[in-house]
Amino acid sequence: MNNLNDITLAEARDGLSRGDYTSVELTEAHIRAIEAARDLNSFITETPNVALERAKASDVRRAGGNPLGGLDGIPIAAKDLFCTEGVKTTAGSHILDGFIPPYESTVTQNLRNAGAVMLGKTNMDEFAMGSANITSYFGAVKNPWSIDDGKDRVPGGSSGGSAAAIAAHLAIAATGSDTGGSIRQPASFTGIVGMKPTYGRCSRWGMVAFASSLDQAGPMTRTVQDAAIMLKFMAGYDPKDSTSINKTIPDFESAMNGNIKGLRIGIPTEYRLDGLSSEVDNLWKQGVDLLKQAGAEPVEISLPHTKYALPTYYIVAPAEASSNLARYDGVRYGLRVPGDSLDEMYENTRGAGFGKEVRRRIMIGTYVLSAGYYDAYYVKAMKLRTLILQEFQQAFESVDVMLTPTAPSAAFAIGERMDDPIQMYLNDVFTVPASLAGLPAISVPSGLSGDGLPLGLHLITKPFDEETLFRVAGVLEEAVKFTAQPSYLRGFS
Amino acid sequence: MSYILEGETGEWEVVIGLEVHAQIMSKAKLFSGAATEFGAAPNTQVSLVDAAMPGMLPVINKICIEQAVRTGLGLNAKINLRSVFERKNYFYPDLPQGYQISQFQEPIVGEGIVTLDMPEGPREIGIERLHMEQDAGKSLHDQDPNLTFIDLNRSGIALMEIVSNPDLRSPAEAGEYILKLRAILRYLGTCDGNMEQGSLRCDANVSVRIRGEVALRTRTEIKNINSVRFVMAAIEHEARRQVDIYENGGSIIQETRLYDADKDETRSMRSKEEAHDYRYFPDPDLLPIVLDQEFVDDIKATLPELPDVKKSRFINDFGLSADDATTLISDVEIANFFESAAIISEPKLAANWVIHELFAILNRDGLSIAKSPVSSVNLGKLVGLIADNTISGRIAKDVFEIMINEGGDPASIIEDKGLKQITNTSEIEGMIDELIDANPEQTQQYREGNIKVAGWFVGQMMTASSGKANPQMVNELLKKKLS
User: Fold this and answer.
1) Which domains are present in chain B?
2) Residues of chain B by 3-state class (helix, strand, coil), percent to 5
């Protein structure tokens, strides 16, 4: 039997149903791993008691011959912006101090209904704003991958805690949320699989909002198959979310049949950025070759509005955030810092409760929505968003899937790129266009940088064509044979 | 006629536009399932959405859309098949989300018309738009010397904001406009129109200009006025204030003002410089509302008869005067009460009885028509008994009094008390003969030409018959017998 910390979700599912081990055993192994890995700071809240209680209940169900859905007994982690009933939820922010939701987000409830066991709440950039998991009020997360230069690497962000936890084998799977790349970029930085479904596939109800028109929950796992299994249980129509889509959920796992013969793989010319490192460029070319060898047909395509995607995103997302975060005012829940007047209480509370990056984005968002600037910024950005969407629609008339790098570089050291937000924002240059268009996309670990840090490749498909996405991702995963282990795990086990 | 403010430099006219906030009649709030009942204990009708808990999302209540469309149709307005909810951003403790979900650039209802019945003739007032929005909660400043308490029961309740064009020209027209709008909403069943409970509130935009000027001058907005009387008083004072400022060489600044009913004055709340920048943008949590024409047509097919049509029908079919018809249609319950009495009796007489006798009692006892001590059917029966000469109008008043105090069917009251009118010619003639025989002196006087004595004879006859002799017959027969 493998070490219980090293098995995949699919293996755990089979092992549990064969009775090779119990959910309690599996869960305890992960609780121990989490305790031993606290230096990574990947969890904000560990919930061993909740986990063991649910694991025991799962074992009882299984012993009685009535296991729940396909995740019964599987220990997973939840990004700390999914509200969890009775368990502190922070969104990585000081302003939600002491907030314990009396309700459970739809996505985590769906997972509970399938029998999943929650190990805890993972660290994240404050309100999901960041690409390095360095803006969390609860401190930076360390990437389990490092090189021999004495510096800790960032895990990417904003779902950096979930990414680090999966990479360090602290949980079998985790939920993330992706607004402009917050699942896919950290997946690339930590050598795991991160998948963002079509906008509307997963309910946003009970997820602390960053930018409502972009936020989407998705799975973070160590294999493509595991992501397919997780998504099946996370997704689903929810009448409580007006933007949730009422569509049947296909069996993503069985869509992974390994056959991509004749599929047209679009290679967007405009993603070949000036100054793209040769190692990323080479990895990309290698990915194209591998898919071609598997029977797919590479097609050069043009997405000329790509260069506007990042500026568009950095208007739309902060605009929505500036409004979404207005509710954190010290009046009803979370932090309140008193003042001599109402305005002073607001200023004190929000000044103390929000970190620098969140304040920056609130100010950008407020500015672009202000009288006199609205047309020049917000309206123009919305027009560009429409153009970007149309461009994708057009491109998908001639290709089935697109292949790009996930991020322009491998993980950088904690403390780097801190002084220039634009440099930080560039991390999302490959992931943001699909977010603006609401398209499903996945990052698959595909190789190592010269320094030995993981790099991901990124696939995008049409809306609600997650089946093709998983199928191609499965083939890519098979072909790249990524077996490298993070340094943390090598030292640890 | 027209409302003019005399000033030293000339005659001033007032220009008024009203924004009426009408609470939509709906059991649930606009974006949550919480109840909307008035008067519940604080914070007992609040859902997670209304309290803006993290991760909560609005879901539109379809009933509210139907109600807004119904109202739009009742205002002869254009229904926009596509409309968009936007966020109006500002901070206030009774606004939990930090924004109000409202409609801004694309409201659900476009231009319409309300016709006012003014003494000088009908006046058409343009409606600019109607949009849906959430109400805010309530700040309670009087519960504690140092703290403000928040009641979120009202937070998220559905409102329609109905915006008029600046077509109103006097406080009286403004008052009439609110009453007419209120009547239409109540006919439609889309708002209960209860101003004391705040289901109907009004903001007034007021400016003045020299009579004959075409351009509009700077306006001020008087916020949150909660009675027709206060709307009229506030406008009157604000117009006078503006005229005085102009006449003293000053200018009006665009600002928001509050009307203080106790002091009967308006005072500045905030100026344009302090005005909020609401940063409206489409709410990304909600999709645009897209209606199909069939949905609108189905609602149109179920619209009730509205005040203007009812009024013409009362005039044309029932022969009522315009004044009586206007009074009766002002409220749907009054109109229904009248009509149910009228169809079983004589409409003009029924109108008289409702407007004069019944209203007097209702006013005296402070009752609404719904609480009338006499049912519409019984009033109709009473009027019918007058019309067919069973009782006289005078006796009818006695019967009405009994109906109010003791209740009951007018026919049985008349039967029990023996109040039926004497209409038998020989019986009346016999009484007259007796009277003439007993009073030769008065008979002589009459026959000598002092016809005023006839009045004395009528009086004697009514006393002798306990008021039951048919007065018309008494008059005619007396004349015949005395001459």
Assistant:
1) 4-299 (no CATH), 307-417 (no CATH), 425-482 (1.10.10.410)
2) 40, 20, 40
A221 pLDDT band, cuts 50/70/90, is very high
Tokens coding A139: 């401190």
Query: Catalytic residue at A79?
Result: yes
Which residues make beta-bridge pairs with B20?
B162, B202
What is the amino acid identity at position B300?
K
Q: Please state, in angstroms and rounded to a whole number, the distance separating the CA atoms of residues B204 and B227.
A: 12
Paired tokens of B112: 């319409």
Beta pairing, strands B4-6 & B11-23: antiparallel
Lay out the sheet containing B99-103: strands in order across: B99-103, B85-89, B281-282
Token readout for A299 is 């097609």
Single-letter amino acid, residue A12: A
**Residue in A101, A105, A369 nearest the CB of B279:** A369
Mutate to test the interface with A, among B43, B53, B141, B272 (most CBs of A within 10 A): B53
* Residue A89, pLDDT score: 98
A→B interface, C-beta within 8 Å: 81, 83, 89, 91, 96, 99, 101-103, 105, 204-209, 211-213, 239-243, 319-320, 322-323, 325-327, 329, 331-333, 342, 346, 366, 369-371, 374, 378
pLDDT of A493:
37
Return the bridge partners of A207, or none: A82
Please tell me the pTM assigned to this model. 0.91
* DSSP-assigned beta bridge partners for residue B469: B422
Do the beta carbons of residue B295 and residue B259 sit within 8 Å?
no
Under a CB-based contact definition with an 8 Å cutoff, are residues B338 and B354 in contact?
yes
Query: In the structure, how many helices (H) and strands (E) does chain A have?
Result: 17, 11
Closest to A6 in 3D by CA, of A174, A169, A167: A169
* CA pair distance A139, A137, nearest whole angstrom: 6
Asked whether A407 and A156 are in contact (CB, 8 A), the reply is: yes
Q: Which residues contact A391 (CB under 8 A, 6 or more apart)?
A: A303, A304, A305
ipTM score: 0.96
The domains found in chain A, sorted by start residue, are 9-263+398-492 (3.90.1300.10)
Check: CB of residue A292 under 8 Å from CB of residue A298: yes
State yes or no: cis peptide before B465, omega within 30 of 0: no
Is pLDDT at A321 greater than 70 in this prediction? yes
Cα separations in angstroms, B312 against A170, B135, B322, B328: 79, 37, 8, 12
- Which DSSP state fits B154? T
> How many whole angstroms separate alpha carbon A64 and alpha carbon A58?
10
